[in-house]
Amino acid sequence: MEPSPAPGELGAMLQAARDFASYPGLHSDDTVRQFLERFPLPKLLGALQSEADVPGMVETVTECLDKVFSSRYGASLLPSYGAFIQTGLLTDLKDIRKLACKAVLHLLDKAEDGAAAVETVVQHNLYPVLIKCLTEGDEEISSIILDAVKRLAEIPKGAEIIFPPDGQGSVQLGKVASQSSSLARIRILSLIAKLFTVSSYTATAIRDSNLLSIFEDEIKDRRDMLKTLSALEVLYELVEHPHSIVFLLKTNLLQLIIDVINDSSADSVIRSRAALISGRLLSSADAFTAIDQSCVTNLLAAIDKILKAEENQNTDEIESALETLGLIGTTTQGAHFLLTSSNVARHVVEASFDRQGRGRQLAALHAFGSIGGVDRQEDQMKLDGQAEEHLKRLVYTTAANSSKLSPSALLLSILQQDPDTRIAGYRVISGLVVREWCLREVCLNSEIIKLVTDPTMETTKLGMEARYNCCVAINKSLSSSHLLHEKSLSELIGKLSDAVRRGPYLTERKRVEARPVVVPAERF
């Protein structure tokens, strides 16, 4: 037990601790060292263990110590106080437990010698206590623990505490999850998601420990909407990471996600999140070599069902379905599959030019740009012959069935709408214009060229850049096309060249010279 300060010095120490804690930024190492020379760490810790009944004392001292441990100098002292950290993690006093949690984070985050920091964790058996705090603490404490355990996993020896090479660790996350409340299981899932992103070692360990099955169990049981949605939210964050595609597609998760999308009794929020997860899973070229094509076909059928349902008035669900198709269409393989193995891509093209719902139209336009190749490398923008033919037919059929009659008139109508819709329209044109048929439609419509080359058209940085990128795409496609030599397009070609040369932000402004003003004497 640390020595408590004498009653006479307690008041002075608390005032100094209050002043130290109230400093708005981080203290320098020198400042921390000078403070601890006046009030040694054992006495500060002793104040927390004293029985003195001083209002606000625990809160003041814990805030002060957090400032101390936030410095590199203060963190370097923590290996000598592992016993205090362990006791703090086990206490029922929230302020002290929170300080102990943050002390572990500072210890791992600021230690110059990672191995020594890990040794402190091992010596005082802190990892099992951290997991206990994660499952039983409040939201604030569990959030700190998530960061601390992730930091532990980022240190090679620390990762072995969580996932021992022999698989016989003192804490089995799967076992903890099976014995915990639904809230604690979601926190375990959040921890798994964070650990998954650390390295291929931790991702492999998670797979080998069968921890991904916890996601499956939570998603299968859809009786508790909030629990299912929470699990899907964590999974949604997880599928953003590069490691996820390789591992997750080798589980039953995608099939379970499809089941959720097909479940008409499930809440639309749950189905929407499930759809976006599937889109993220299939937004990688590797995905189409890792799974059976029938699984993708089943997914597209589920998405098609959402978009075809005339009674579906849920705009969020429709927008999520369209966004999902855009994610799938990001890669060449995905775009090819959308256009040749299913009729689902027609929803994207038709909704892109349908002004019935703004959010729906924006989602469709964004997806259309992705399918058209705007997000792909230049040499991968165009698809094979069959897919390209389907794409062209979709656009011309949609135009023929509209009041505009031609693709160029449809594209022009997009550029004549509000700024957000125009930005999405620039994306679509930038992707489609690598195709000769679209390039001709654009170049033979002088109004389109007038709008995309107008430097005053957009007022936001995003809008200016989107318009400029569209100019560059048209100009580049034109430079390698036989249309370049058509005399009727010479003025247009000049406009595009000037617009590209100006850049995205510059506008031509006539310089106004200063002029002397002559004022008659009678005025005075």
Automatic annotation (TrEMBL):
Q: Identify the domain of life.
A: Eukaryota
What is the protein name given in its UniProt record? ARM repeat superfamily protein
Q: Which species is the source of this protein? A: Urochloa decumbens
